[in-house]
């Protein structure tokens, strides 16, 4: 069984996949930096090292960026599972994606607050990830609303 | 199609997860070691010290950030000396910047930068507490954890002044006869090794008796 895609839903699915993959790439890059002595490629504002080396970049031994990688992978998995499960389970996938991306967008907002007011340095890669998560959340809302009316 | 209660439950769960993550992130940044707020001052020679500057007993400390016995002293014995002797005005602790290797000299240079912000003691213990994961690349992380001004810290760490200070201090230590760590001088008497607090206490009492005959 595969998902039947209307042109609008096809656009949504494609957008979610693209944003999800971009999110995995950005969060993976930040995770690699956390696990190595490599300095992040930083253009413009240049606070990458300050943010990435701050105590807020880790929860215990776990880099916050790794949570991002996991979050984006879960979102991609939820998207790719569409149409491959029983109709009952399938109907919960848009809501699950909405829930996961809501976690992502709220936590990203908190991390952005830390950059602005606590660490007082900006990491463009982290901001990029926050923007991607916000876009994904908007797409998840659209997707969920559309699934609700069908 | 999920019902409204299910939707509300998912949103509620998402908010709970975020609250948990925020609390964990904040928790991870609580200082993990003692010494919070205990400002260290600088001797005329530029070494960080704690206690009454006219205390009858001075303990000069030479530690290397790669040395496990130095970690034992910093985390176990030093706090007891602080509580029992520094707080009572009997002892002054003076830390000397020291590093056997190029890497630990870079770490010591970071400690110079913390000392300039009068936060040597807490930073020093944070570095030792995280000795297993300490690298020259994640020094700013620990600096941030103890609340140092990161702009000033990074500027200081990048300057050659802090490294030169460590190099000079290390050379002075070698000249004073330091060839193992930790090494201490209690009113000039050399002691090697992370002795238990009881042994330090005996030496301090002896020094106090000598200082107040």
List descriptors.
heterodimer; A: mainly alpha; two-stranded antiparallel sheet; B: 213 residues; alpha+beta; 6-stranded mixed β-sheet; 8 helices; 6 strands
Question: What can be said about this structure in brief?
Answer:
The complex is a heterodimer of chains A (150) and B (213). By secondary structure, chain A is mainly α.
What does this structure look like?
- The complex is a heterodimer of chains A (150) and B (213).
- Chain A is mainly α and 150 residues long.
- In chain A, 71% of the residues lie in helices and 3% in strands.
- Chain A contains six helices and two strands.
- Chain A has helices at 7-34, 48-52, 64-80, 87-90, 93-119, 124-149; strands at residues 58-59, 62-63.
- Chain A has a two-stranded antiparallel sheet.
- In chain A, helix 1 (7-34) packs antiparallel against helix 6 (124-149).
- The mean pLDDT of chain A is 84.
- With 213 residues, chain B is of the alpha+beta class.
- Chain B has eight helices and six strands; from the N terminus they run H-E-E-E-H-E-H-H-H-H-H-E-E-H.
- A six-stranded mixed beta sheet of chain B has the order 1-2-4-3-5-6.
- In chain B, helix 2 packs antiparallel against helix 4 (120-129) and helix 3 packs antiparallel against helix 4 (120-129).
- Chain B is elongated and about 85 Å long.
- The N and C termini of chain B lie far apart (88 Å).
- The model of chain B is unreliable at 30-37 (pLDDT under 50).
- At the A-B interface, strand 1 and helix 5 of A face helix 1, helix 5 and helix 6 of B.
């Amino acid at each position: 069984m595969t998902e039947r895609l209307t042109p609008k839903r096809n656009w949504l699915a494609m957008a979610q996949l693209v944003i999800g993959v971009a999110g995995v790439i950005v969060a993976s890059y930040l995770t690699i930096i956390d696990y190595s002595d490599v300095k992040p490629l930083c253009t413009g504002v240049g606070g990458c090292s300050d943010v990435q080396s701050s105590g807020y970049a880790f929860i215990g031994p776990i880099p916050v960026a790794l949570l991002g990688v996991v979050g984006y992978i879960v979102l991609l998995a939820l998207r790719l599972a569409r149409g491959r499960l029983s109709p009952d389970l399938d109907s919960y996938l848009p809501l699950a994606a909405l829930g996961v991306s809501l976690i992502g967008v709220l936590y990203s907002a908190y991390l952005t607050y830390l950059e602005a007011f606590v660490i007082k340095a900006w990491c463009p890669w982290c901001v990029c990830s926050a923007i991607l998560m916000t876009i994904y959340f908007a797409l998840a809302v659209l997707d969920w609303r559309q699934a609700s009316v069908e | 199609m999920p019902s409204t209660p299910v939707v509300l439950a998912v949103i509620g769960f998402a908010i709970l997860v975020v609250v948990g993550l925020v609390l964990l992130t904040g928790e991870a940044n609580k200082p993990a070691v003692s010494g919070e707020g205990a400002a260290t001052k600088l001797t005329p020679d530029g070494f960080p010290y704690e206690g009454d500057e006219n205390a009858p007993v001075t303990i000069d400390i030479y530690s290397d950030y790669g040395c496990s016995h130095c970690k034992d002293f910093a985390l176990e014995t030093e706090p007891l000396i602080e509580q029992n002797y520094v707080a009572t005005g009997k002892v002054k602790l003076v830390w000397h910047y020291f590093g056997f290797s190029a890497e630990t000299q870079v770490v010591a240079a970071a400690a110079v930068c913390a000392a300039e912000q009068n936060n040597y003691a807490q930073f020093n213990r944070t570095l030792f507490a995280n000795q297993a994961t300490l690298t020259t690349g994640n020094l700013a992380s620990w600096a941030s954890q103890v609340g140092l001004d990161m702009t000033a810290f990074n500027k200081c760490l990048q300057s050659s002044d802090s490294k030169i200070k460590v190099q000079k201090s290390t050379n002075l230590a070698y000249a004073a006869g330091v060839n193992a760590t930790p090494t201490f001088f209690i009113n000039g008497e050399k002691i090697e090794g992370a002795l238990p607090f009881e042994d330090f206490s005996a030496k301090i009492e002896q020094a106090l008796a000598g200082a107040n005959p």
